[in-house]
Write a structure and sequence with these properties.
Number of domains: 2
CATH architecture of the largest domain: 3-Layer(aba) Sandwich
Structural class: alpha/beta
Number of strands: 12
Order of helices and strands: EHHEHEHEHEEHHEHEHEHEHEHEHH
Enzyme class: transferase
CATH topology of the largest domain: Rossmann fold
Protein name: Transferase
Shape: globular
CATH superfamily of the largest domain: Glycogen Phosphorylase B
EC number: 2.-.-.-
InterPro entries: Glyco_trans_9 (IPR002201), LPS_LOS_Heptosyltrfase (IPR051199)
GO molecular function: ADP-heptose-lipopolysaccharide heptosyltransferase activity
Number of helices: 14
Length: 335
């Protein structure tokens, strides 16, 4: 059986699809992951994925491309050429799977399933309804289950990635704590000043600190690192970042892709979690974690990209001392 799993949005979202992918892979001969450009690096890290199909869908993302009939036809042709017998379309609770399901139908995929609030007409063979309060990883696995796909024996359903490389040449020898100050959504970002304070205080408390970030965040990581941390800004492609996070005693970051990557390599997380999306759905999954931030703030559940409350109180009330105490709590629990 040739199977396709679709998750067309971001890096972290694709990582959360990992357990569902492994359930599909347990029954399929070949699994293709259909994703957007932002999710492609994560898709290539997932166990069970044999091939990756990349397309920037006009219904996904903050600045989606215009609808281009030629591009839609070309994508449909690529799906048809794949000869897929079945497709699982994964989305967040606020998204619709039906545009992707329509292309899959036009491509001749025989069996299509998804979690859908909207009436699907003839677009879905399996219409799942997610249970309230389920984490995104669990909701995806539930949808796979509704299609008859189950995890293989011995698979605990945690997030997972393929084995990352040894990153000691980057991080140096000895234990360390990672601080990842950036996030793709401004409303989920702790201020650079607070991050720098936390790095300095962690170093004062005797922790070796490694600061990570993308190439576009090098100025941020340089500032946050000061003269007390190892600055890896712009030096960690996703697979390398997985190795850096795997080697850490704990990771301090916001609700962003590296939090899920840390969970996928089994590293405890101090999560600076702005409640614009609910933590029960998006928090670090199946790893020890401490959640910081006012989860009852006025921005809760708004899905705002920019903080709608002056002063960003949900996160700015968190202090560097709170972070150090949380790191020490996780390390003590791990003893």
């Amino acid at each position: 059986m040739r199977a396709l799993v679709a998750r067309l949005d971001s890096f972290g979202d694709v990582l959360l699809a990992g357990p569902a992918v492994r359930a599909v892979a347990a029954a399929a001969d070949q699994v293709t992951f259909w994703c957007g450009p932002r999710g492609e690096p994560a898709a290539r890290l997932l166990p069970g994925v044999d091939d990756v199909l990349v397309w920037e869908a006009p219904w996904e993302g903050v600045r989606p491309p215009a609808v281009d009939p030629a591009a839609v036809r070309a994508m449909t042709d690529r799906l048809r050429a794949g000869g897929y017998d079945t497709a699982l379309v994964l989305t967040s609770f606020h998204q619709s799977p039906l545009p992707a399901a329509l292309l899959l139908r036009l491509a001749g995929v025989g069996r299509v399933g998804a979690d859908s609030t909207d009436h699907p007409g003839s677009l879905l063979d399996v219409r799942h309804r997610r249970l309230p309060g389920r984490h995104e990883a669990e909701a995806a696995l539930d949808t796979a289950g509704a299609m008859g796909f189950a995890l293989p024996p011995g698979d605990d359903g945690a997030l997972r990635v393929n084995p990352p490389p040894d990153t000691v040449p980057l991080t140096g020898n000895g234990p360390y704590v990672v601080v990842h100050p950036g996030a793709s959504v401004p409303a989920r970002t702790w201020s650079a000043e607070r991050c720098a304070e936390a790095v300095a205080l962690l170093a004062d408390a005797g922790h070796r600190v490694v600061v990570t970030g993308g190439t576009e965040e090098r100025r941020l990581t340089r500032y946050v690192s000061g003269d007390v941390a190892v600055d890896l800004g712009g030096r960690t492609a996703p697979r390398v970042l997985a190795g850096v996070l795997r080697g850490a005693e704990a990771v301090v970051c916001g609700n962003t892709g590296p939090a899920h990557l840390a969970a996928a390599v089994g590293t405890p997380v101090v999560s600076l979690f702005a409640p614009v999306v609910p933590a029960e759905r998006w928090g670090p999954y199946r790893v020890p974690a401490v959640l910081l931030g006012d989860q009852g703030a006025p921005c809760a559940g708004t899905r705002a990209r920019d903080c709608p409350v002056p002063g960003h109180p949900c996160l700015e009330q968190v202090t560097a001392a709170d972070v150090v105490r949380s790191v020490q709590k996780l390390l003590k629990e791990a003893e």
